[in-house]
Amino acid sequence: VFWQLDLAVLSLVVVTAIGALSVKDLLGCAILLGAYSFLMCLLWAIMGAVDVAFTEASVGAGVSTVFFISAVFRTTRRSKD
Amino acid sequence: LKAFGFFIVGLTGAFLIWATFDFPDWADPNAPASLHVSPYYIEKALEETGTSNIVTAVLADYRGYDTMFETTVIFAAGLVCFLLLRRVFFQAANERLYRHLPTGITIRIKGEHPPLPQGEFEPIDLHWIPHDIIIRTVCRLLVPFVQLFALYVIAHGHSSPGGGFQGGVILGASFILLAMGFNLRALVKRIREKAQSVLSTSGVFIYAATGWVCLLLGLSFLDYSALASLLGLDRIMSRSYGIFIVEVGVGIAVMGTMIWIYSNLSSMGNQDEGL
Fold first, then answer.
1. Which terminus of chain A is less hemmed in, N or C, by CB atoms within 10 Å?
2. Using an 8 Å Cβ cutoff, are B160 and B149 in contact?
């Protein structure tokens, strides 16, 4: 595996994590968190943990994003802090 | 206070990063984690359990006890969502929208009302999102393939990445996709609330019952080689089939719980109007 790819994915993970924390719109937060999960899934796959990557892709990027979005739909879209 | 909080977080982060320097190198063959039991699993998993995916063998056989309680944790999450949203904070809807099908007129009814004539009125969500023909068609086309793939993932977990958790999540996600493409009533009509809870309970029950059957047949809890006499197979193949039974249980539990959580969460417990 190229280290450049590793570095690119890792820095994108950090960027999406900080973005998900700082964005005021909670719907955007949920989507950024989904992107974060997907990048983590790529990272697991690069490290050879295919089973973990699969779980991350289905649970983290798939279903939990849906749960977050439905929670936002039922509460509020603006974050207070 | 904000600066103080930032300082604490920064300090903890610095300590954590400092602690990672003590970690063994990545893929170091002399790391403690790869010296203890890992060589045994790598060498013996196929021989002892007839399962070529070592991860599945460890997950469902060697560490089967762990996985049983992981399934229980997921079931508990679904149960808590149900209890909080359906029992504690439940509020019945006090107004509803109906569309009169022949004329296309939408009416709003507040409070209790006598049942409307069948087949003439169609319930609409209050936060009504107009149906999109593209989304509906794509969802309808996609759902069967997603479900087929999920079943493949569950059944093929022995020899490729996958297994009960992933397959169950994908299977649950296919039903959630149905609810998002149409509406929540389309999902609840197919899998009723009682069925959702029964599915997520019975998955955990299948897992635990397999363990108890092994116990009753004279070996320890979740030692699937005890199933050999019951299935008419040798001890290795019965361990392989035991893993499969348990994975199916996990898949059913996870699927049921995902649908259960989604339908309660997106409708605030009334399982009627949702996302």
1. C
2. no
Sequence-ordered list of residues with C-beta below 8 angstroms from that of B261, at least 6 positions apart, any chain: A67, B77, B78, B81
Element (H, E) at B95: strand B95-100
The model's pTM: 0.85
Report chain B's mean pLDDT, rounded to a whole number. Answer: 84
DSSP conformation letters of A17-77: HHHHHH-SBHHHHHHHHHHHHHHHHHHHHHTT-HHHHHHIIIIIIIIHHHHHHHHHHHS-S
Kindly calculate the radius of gyration of chain B based on its CA atoms and give it in whole angstroms. Answer: 25
Instruction: Give the Cα separation of B8 and B12 in Å (integer).
Output: 6
> Smallest Cβ distance to B262: which of A55, A59, A67?
A67
CA distance linking residue A64 with residue A37, whole number of Å: 10
Q: What is the per-residue pLDDT across B226-247, written as a single tens digit (0 to 9) for each?
A: 877 887 778 888 888 888 889 9
Nearest to B204 by CA among B73, B80, B84: B73
Taking only the tens place, the pLDDT of each residue in B21-47 is 888 777 777 777 777 788 888 888 788
| Percent of chain B surpassing pLDDT 70 | 99
Average pLDDT over residues B210-221: 86
Structure tokens at B194: 């009682």
Please measure the distance between the N-terminal and C-terminal CA atoms of chain A and give it in whole angstroms.
Answer: 40
Closest to B173 (Cβ–Cβ): which among A51, A62, A73? A62
Give the residue from chain B lying closest to A51, CA to CA. B161
Burial class (CB in 10 A: 0-12, 13-18, 19+), B182: middle
The answer, yes or no, to whether residue B115 has pLDDT greater than 90, is no
Q: Hey, are the CB atoms on A63 and B161 less than 8 Å from each other?
A: no
Rounded mean pLDDT, B53-69: 86
Rounded to two decimals, the ipTM of the complex is 0.86
Find chain B residues with C-beta within 8 A of A50's C-beta.
161
Q: Which two tokens stand for residue B184?
A: 């929540």
- Which residues in chain A are closer than 8 Å to B153, comparing Cβ atoms? 54
Cα–Cα distance for residue pair B260/B81, rounded to 1 Å: 8
Q: For residue A47, with 0-12 CB atoms within 10 Å meaning exposed, 13-18 middle and 19 or more buried, which class applies?
A: middle
Per CB-CB distance under 8 Å, the chain A contacts of B161 are: 50-51, 53-54
